[in-house]
Amino acid sequence: MTDLLITNARPYGGDPTDLLITDGVVTTIGTGRSAPDGVEVLDAGGAVLLPGFVDLHVHLREPGGEESETIETGSHAAALGGFTAVFAMPNTDPVADSDVVVEHVWRRGAEIGLVDVHPVGAVTVGLGGERLAELGTMANSRAAVRMFSDDGRCVNDPLIMRRALEYASALDAVVAQHAEDHRLTAGAQAHEGAVAARLGLTGWPATAEETIVARDCALAREARARLHVCHISTARTIEVLRAAKAQGVQVSAEVTPHHLLLTDGRLTGYDPVNKVNPPLRTADDTRAMREALAEGVIDVVATDHAPHAAQYKDTEWQAAKPGMLGLQTALSVLIETMVEPGLLDWYGVARVLSERPAEIGRLADQGRPIAEGEPATFALVDPDAVWTVRGANLASKAANTPYEGMRLPGAVVATVLRGRITARDGKVQA
Ligand code: DOR
Ligand code: ZN
């Protein structure tokens, strides 16, 4: 039975074509087909067709933080942003450090059904950094956890990190490190540099990230384990990664859209919407991030989508929680920073937003090439659209976008998950 005919779509920005989809799988690619009776037609209008986006790093806040986001509202934001799979970080309440909690998150995601929600399991019990959580139990649960992280906190203790890598390796899982030596960032409020000095904010030194990444690469090499470094933010971290990769260490890294576009120059007004961890860095750092992403030293873009209800953000800088929304603006920021300047073509966008993240997260049916016999899991993108970001119009429960009022290029026309349209023209297809 044929389910869907997508017409006039341009795979990876190439020539327009049609795709016939049956039971969630692409059966035929080619022009000149009329729709069989009763088939839903999606006229792509010449939009760019890409594999659905995979986000290795989101905070959906459920359970426990429902005033900021739920799995449902986060799933809406993801579908509208072109995402077909997301990895939900475990810094919830209770923490996702057991089979019970990861299965809850996984089940809720499946019930909503707009995006594949993969829970990330905590590395340590309660994110306490002291005792390893039961990684095997989470891996063997129905949620089949393949990524572990204490994100929000660094696994600072080298012995715990070593054990986590050893266990993860045996489970074919990856440890995603929030690289921040907490001894070096005690009380930190902004990137350590001229801007923080002028504003009187305690600095978060770049070395707090670089030293942990260097240490963890050494540990990953010895454990023959896979290490993923979350939200890298400093130019010298890139050099550490480059060296480790050259030596065959199994390390991957992500950069967030905000660390590609925004700098600590935005902090002068003390608006907590710009507060994020790791902090916004310098223009030299953003430039280095863009070059390393183009080159492949940075593997993926991940949003670190971090919704916070107004009560946590509309407060003075020191008290505000770090984090910013990302799911519905990620593609546009990537177009602005990488595609329009000629650093990435559409194949490159597919690589950093879909193919590599699916590989790292061990998702067999995401990040696949656009071809006959492959899953019909897509993002359709109008690269010529321009829109103005309004936090109040985003699907997230919270509105803490740093791009408020900015005009950004590119829009997601539709998102398709295994042949089902999940979002179209800015609306979720329930
Ligand atoms: O800015 C951040 N927000 N960085 C993190 O590591 C955690 C996240 C959150 O949970 O809000
Ligand atoms: Zn983090």
From TrEMBL:
Its cofactor is Zn(2+). GO terms for cellular component: cytoplasm. Its EC number is 3.5.2.3. Pathway: Pyrimidine metabolism; UMP biosynthesis via de novo pathway; (S)-dihydroorotate from bicarbonate: step 3/3. InterPro entries: DHOase, DHOase/Allantoinase_Hydrolase, DHOase_cat, Dihydroorotase_CS, Metal-dep_hydrolase_composite, Metal_Hydrolase. Binds 2 Zn(2+) ions per subunit. Keywords: Hydrolase, Metal-binding, Pyrimidine biosynthesis, Zinc. It catalyses: (S)-dihydroorotate + H2O = N-carbamoyl-L-aspartate + H(+). Belongs to the metallo-dependent hydrolases superfamily. DHOase family. Class I DHOase subfamily. This is Dihydroorotase. It comes from Pseudonocardia autotrophica. The gene is pyrC.
